[in-house]
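User: Could you write out the 3D structure of this protein bound to zinc ion? I've included everything you need below.
Assistant: Certainly. Input first, then the structure.
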Amino acid sequence: MITTSAVVPWGREASARTQPEEDPARMAYDPRTQTGIPTENVGSLPRPAKLQAAYADYDSGTITKEQLEAEQDEAVRDSIERMEATGAPIVSDGEQRWSSFATYALADTLAGTGLADKLAGGGQYFAIFADGHRRQLPKLTGGPFRYKTYAADTLKKSIGFATRPMKQAVIAPSMLALLYPLDDEVSGYSREEFEADLIDECEKDIRGAFAAGAARVSVDFTEGRLATRKDPRNPWTGRDLLPHFIDLNNRVMARFTAEERSNIGVHTCPGGDRDSVHSADVDYHDLLPSMFTINAGYFLIQLASERDRDRVYKLVGEHSREDADGVAQMCYVGVINPLNPRVESAQEVCNALVRAAEFIPKERLGATDDCGFSPFSIDEKPNHGSPDYARDVAFQKIKNRVEGARMAADKLGMAVPG
Ligand SMILES: [Zn+2]
């Protein structure tokens, strides 16, 4: 279906239960509350081994959708409970109901079960990772393009498990633009018509997430850094698509007011799947000056695993904007590496933030993880040894990020009273 042998496929899944809440406290979330220096995760957590097995059983037809959904509910409950226990001021459901950060909108599972209308298997490779594995997209066969599942559909099922504000990640229009064949025309549906529909769907996805109760929405833009890699094995990376990607994202941002955009973020990273990356060798200088022209209110920036962090802090300080069409750009720097099982100490996190504040105005500084802890549902977390152990490690890392942000706020005179 969406996969070929030796290729890791992707897709998505949903379930049904709890009701969204219009909680005023949740809507009024202030990212500085509790930690002084704002801190927020990207979105995903490793799926427990038991849930990964359930996805496989669902693909092979040995369990029902209801049985899969029961496993998803259990994984979401555990994810939110443990993330709240870290002290994090804002939490996510760990994307436990999604087969991936990019294809939740398109298909029920990574193997392609329940693929949306007008899509077929065998599209472009999104990425070829450093360890040799690949992730492939479906391809568009006709129009109009519509999401099968919106982020709100799964958020509504998860939000009842949370007692703290929730964030929601969504996929960027630039990733889904790769559904359109690189060179061929889809019969009766031009690229321009497709991209117009795509922008509408992205806007709907973000608005729906807020309406379902998300306090913040971040757009996953991992393809940004990959867009300048020029990997001959993966033709789209050699077509200088970055300016077009930025334009697509700004077309979505233009649908929102400055006030709304203060709660809409963009995440950049060199990938983070099976503890491997796809574009760490791309110089951030090729991305960051363009990326900060996106009129988003905040950015979640992989940085902990960079070799020369000072150089990147400097780029962030130079290119992020005080006024991006009416909103100041908050820069959440990565202080945790989700691909490495070594747990960063709170002191290390604090030191990184204090250092970053020498290059980035402290009023616009935040802390995040370099990436989601498992953007794809099927992920053995090989550096960790198992997904269940990787979950334990992830919660320790999040706890230290939160504590380290608080310590840095103290040092920088940003601590909140009480
Ligand atoms: Zn990422």
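The first helix runs from residue 24 to 27.
User: Perfect, thank you.
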